[in-house]
Design brief:
Elements: E1 2-3, E2 6-7, H1 11-15, E3 26-30, H2 39-44, H3 57-72, E4 84-88, E5 114-115, H4 116-132, H5 136-145, E6 149-153, H6 180-188, E7 194-195
């Protein structure tokens, strides 16, 4: 829930970033280890328990939603129109549970446009993963509150690091699908061509 230093874990902290309400689109990163179902997996991977947040992804999302409703004067019976890219970070920690031909694992096609079909496939797969982690409340919240949102999964490193030693994979850093959320927002603003 740390966005370049801002704290979105509390409604008070979220009010400090009310300037986000003026954005044409938002990218919200969710740490998969914030889902309670993944806490034991984090511990088994050597992530210290004190580094695991007690704040759920649902709470972070609820705080962001409330801030956007307040800054945009959006009534409770209306949906927020700002596009929201919801990115599950550190997806490399779950590669061993995902088939290599699934959208989350495969690299996007190299075309000079935004691949809408690939993005929708990725969205559906990430939604299924989140649901499996007990994140049904996140899915429901987005559906009830946002007119335009999309799920993404990304890895800044491209391969799981050694958490205990705090070192990257021996093959180096190979970011995986990190551009997808920005490309989706750009395609929505017609800055980038969209292909189906």
């Amino acid at each position: 829930y740390d966005t370049a230093g801002e704290d979105l874990a509390t409604s008070e902290g979220t009010k400090d970033v009310a300037y986000l309400g003026a954005a044409d689109g938002l990218i919200l990163l969710l740490d998969p280890f914030q889902f309670p179902a993944n806490h034991s997996k984090a511990i088994s991977k050597g992530i210290p328990a004190d580094r695991l947040s007690a704040v759920s992804p649902q709470q972070v999302l609820a705080n962001v939603t409330q801030m956007l409703r307040e800054t945009g004067n959006v009534k409770q019976n209306k949906k927020i129109t700002q596009p929201l890219a919801v990115v599950v970070s550190k997806i490399d920690a779950f590669f061993d549970e995902i088939d290599s031909d699934e959208a989350v694992r495969r690299a996007p096609r190299q075309i000079p446009a935004f691949d809408e079909n690939d993005s929708r496939d990725l969205h559906d797969h990430v939604a299924s993963i989140i649901d499996g982690w007990g994140g049904g409340d996140v899915l429901s919240h987005l559906e009830l509150n946002y007119k335009n949102y999309r799920f993404f999964a990304a890895s800044a490193l491209g391969a799981e690091p050694d958490y205990g030693q705090a070192t990257a994979d021996s093959q180096g850093i190979r970011p995986h699908r990190v551009a997808d959320p920005l490309l989706w927002l750009m395609a929505g603003e017609r800055i980038l061509e969209k292909r189906v």
